[in-house]
Design goal:
- By secondary structure, this protein is α+β, with helices and mostly antiparallel strands.
- Helix content is 31%, strand content 27%.
- The strands form 6 sheets. Strands 23, 24, 25, 26, 27, 28, 29, 32, 33 and 34 form a 10-stranded mixed beta sheet that branches. Strands 12, 13, 14, 15, 16, 17, 18, 19 and 20 form a 9-stranded mixed beta sheet that branches. Strands 1, 3, 4, 6, 9 and 11 form a 6-stranded antiparallel beta sheet that branches.
Length: 751
């Protein structure tokens, strides 16, 4: 930063003139100066003289949008295009920065402040010239800190790898380095981004798989169930063709026509059956809906496994090959499922769903398994096939009845897009609320499962259509929860936290233990003395240098409860049922840690669970999303298993805490101790659960401060290195995430 400041003679404030879709507002009418009137607002940038070389772009924007990406476009003689564009995610009201390279011959520059309608102010827009050496060093450091390919590498290794990769691709080193650097600024997945992923990543995956696999046809016979009813001819043919063109050929297609009255249906089915003896068709005399039709198709099955296919959907050409490959690697597998996307009437693929590994609580909340599902035939027949009365969610119902007879190692996720779900007007794929009966059927299925396998638990509709909330019982008598709150001074923060817990929490059986870490402020000491008049509050002194792990381990020795709650002193409950919800989950015998949904004071997400590997160790799921957003396939609204949750608000049974040795005092005094605890809990055989139904504000790091000193940065680096050494590749193979998703950002965008 000092170097940049020393080059003040080479600092260029951008002279901006509205060019398109930008309206100047009356400054007296509100806090914003500019309004974007459509999704492509543009400023032209006046160049005072030709500019070439490396620059630091600095932009400070104040705006009223949930999120903003500013783009700098270059016209190098052929007009503005996506070939020469630099994206910069904006931190509202703060200066955001990134490197840009201006090649020789730049004719014009354009600045697009945002990509939506909205109001904004431009507080700062500047280009700062940099030496090539300084720019290169900044670029490499960002790759090391932000790009998954270069984690834990030094500058020499990264520089060497970029040169080798550029040579292999046949492109200039600088261009390749900039391409990698640009990847660290991608925010939120887009349709266009997925098309790029299909063309590059998916094609590479398929090519590599085709070369490595033998494509043996001696594997198990897979019987594909296809219930059909009045399918539009074009979609029916595409569906059938997607089966016939499978790379793996040992399949059987079992079709049950459910009394279609469209003449083309029988004509198409008969013609395909006549051409391929692997296709068997039965014609039902009366329409009995999808469960009855699926059972008719099931009667035709002779294969060891069945795959479920809807009549207007399509399989990837490698779908069955990938399934057989997974079966060869996991001989115990009896339920397999893949990632999926949607496909429109024109064949355009979009909205990819990259799923986690087996996630029991997520399946109770939503049929995340969906397509492609492959099940052991004997298992399906053993549970009675498809149940009538739950049409619309018959697959979810079948899966729930099947998993009751499966162990986790018999359930396998295939992290590839193997299924294309047709999205047309009126379909479930098009909009979850198109068919209300599907939500009702799903609730019926989950409720019946809870009745049979979790006595005392019940199900109710979730926040999002086709999702559900399982209400777990709290034991009688309700266990005592010991809430541990480390603190040092900052009485305003502590008072807000403690008073809110005491006044708002509807769960009655709790105690608060304030762990006073060398507070010296007179007002704080007075508050600590006064608050202990409440019999629910105890103050215990910890007269040693700050060590979050040590303080809480000490607090556990003073706790009376069978449930331990770790709370930061800057936590503020929002909903009265927050603690009841968390206790109901933590008292399950299979659960270790339980985490909550935390918001910044500006109503954006601070914590919705921890994703391993992001940023080199771990990051927060959906960070900075708006409070009202549903998140990636509604995961901000669903109870689910995650690898870790934050210690800012975490519940754990005392017995489990002691079993794994509590928090790591020696190696993790400040950072990652909560992640380490959760990983130890998971290694001991317990699940870590995150719930969106416990909501609290988190005024993050108010009391301790940020890691902004050399000593703190050194400590943070040491703790990160410990985590990587201790947990190794586990940090980069999070079962609650997906290997196709980013380890750079916290937004579930594509890798």
């Amino acid at each position: 930063m000092g170097i940049i400041k020393s080059l003040s003679i080479f600092r260029f404030d951008l002279r901006l003139s509205p060019a398109s879709a930008i309206k100047h507002l009356n400054s007296d009418s509100g806090e914003y100066e500019w309004e974007s009137t459509d999704t492509d607002p543009q400023f032209s940038v006046k160049l005072r003289f030709p500019m070439r070389g490396w620059f630091m772009l600095e932009v400070a924007l104040q705006h009223n949008q949930p999120s903003v990406v500013t783009k700098l476009y270059l016209d190098c003689g052929k007009g503005f295009s996506e070939e020469h564009v630099y994206s910069l995610p904006i931190k509202n009201g703060r200066v955001s920065k990134r490197l840009v390279f201006l090649p020789f011959g730049v004719k014009k520059i354009r600045l697009d402040p945002l990509e939506s309608e909205g109001e904004f102010n431009i507080r700062h827009a500047r280009l700062i010239w940099l030496t090539s050496a300084f720019a290169e060093e900044r670029l490499l450091h960002r790759l090391i800190n932000m790009h998954y390919r270069f984690r834990e590498q030094d500058l020499k290794c990264v520089r060497r790898e970029i040169k080798a990769s550029a040579k292999e691709k046949g492109c200039p080193v600088r261009d390749h380095a900039l391409q990698l650097y640009n990847q660290t600024f991608i925010k939120r997945p887009t349709r266009r981004g997925y098309q790029d992923w299909i063309e590059c990543e998916e094609q590479n995956h398929h090519q590599q798989f085709a070369l490595l696999s033998q494509q043996s046809q001696s594997g198990p016979l897979i019987s594909i169930l296809l219930p059909v009813y009045n399918t539009p001819e074009i979609f029916l043919r595409e569906c059938l063709d997607s089966v016939i063109t499978q790379r793996y050929q040992n399949w059987q297609l079992c079709i049950a026509d459910d009394g279609s009255d469209k003449s083309h249906v029988r004509q198409v089915l008969d013609s395909y059956a006549a051409k391929d003896n692997r296709i068997t068709v039965c014609y039902r005399e009366e329409n009995g809906h999808i469960s009855a039709a699926s059972n008719s198709a099931l009667e035709l099955v002779t294969g060891r496994y069945i795959a479920l296919l809807d009549h207007d959907d399509c399989l990837s050409e490698f779908a069955l090959s990938r399934v057989v490959d997974a079966l060869n690697k996991n001989s115990a597998a009896r339920l397999l499922y893949s990632d999926e996307d949607k496909i429109d009437a024109d064949g355009f693929r979009f909205d990819p769903h990259f799923k986690p590994e087996w996630n029991y609580d997520l399946l109770l909340a939503q049929n995340y398994i969906a397509h492609l599902s492959v099940l052991d035939t004997d298992l399906v027949r053993g549970v009675g096939g498809f149940k009538t009365g739950v049409e619309g969610s018959q697959d979810h119902d079948l899966l729930l009845r099947c998993i009751a007879h499966l162990s986790p190692d018999e359930i396998v996720h295939i992290p590839h897009i193997l299924y294309h779900w047709r999205s047309i007007e009126g379909s479930t794929a098009s909009a979850a609320n198109e068919k209300d009966y599907t939500s009702e059927a799903g609730l019926k299925a989950v409720s019946e499962y809870c009745r049979q396998y979790h006595p005392g638990a019940s199900a109710e509709p979730g926040i999002v259509p086709n999702t559900y909330k399982v209400c777990w019982p709290v034991p009688e008598p309700a266990p005592l929860v010991s809430l541990l709150i480390p603190t040092r001074d900052n009485v305003e923060v502590l008072r807000c936290c403690v008073d809110a817990i005491l006044q708002l929490t509807d769960y009655k059986s709790f105690e608060i233990i304030i762990l006073n870490n060398q507070s010296s402020c007179e007002e704080t000491l007075e508050y600590l003395e006064r608050i202990t008049t409440d019999p629910r509050v105890t103050v215990v002194n910890w007269d040693y240098p700050f060590n979050y792990s040590s303080i809480n381990n000490f607090g556990v020795t003073k706790a009376r409860g069978s449930v331990i709650g770790l709370l930061n002193n800057d936590i503020e409950p929002i909903n009265p049922g927050w603690l009841t919800e968390m206790v109901s989950l933590v008292c399950r015998s299979d659960v270790g840690c339980v985490g909550a949904k935390l918001y910044y004071p500006n109503e954006t997400i601070q914590h919705a669970g921890v994703i391993l590997g992001i940023g080199g160790v771990a990051g927060h799921s959906h960070k900075y999303y708006e409070r009202h957003e549903h998140g990636y396939f509604s995961r901000l609204r669903l109870v689910q298993e995650l690898s870790a949750v934050t210690g800012a608000c975490l519940l754990i049974r005392r017995s489990v805490y002691e079993e794994v040795g509590g928090l790591n005092e020696a190696n993790l005094a400040v950072a990652f101790n909560d992640v380490d605890l959760c990983l130890k809990v998971r290694a001991a055989g317990y699940k870590n659960i995150w719930t969106p139904y416990a909501e609290l504000y988190h005024h993050e790091s108010v009391s301790r401060g940020a890691d902004d000193s050399a000593k703190k940065r050194k400590r943070a680096k040491r703790e990160a290195e410990y985590m990587r050494k201790q947990w190794g590749e586990q940090l980069y193979q999070d079962p609650a995430y997906n290997p196709n998703l980013t380890l750079v950002h916290e937004d579930f965008s594509l890798r």
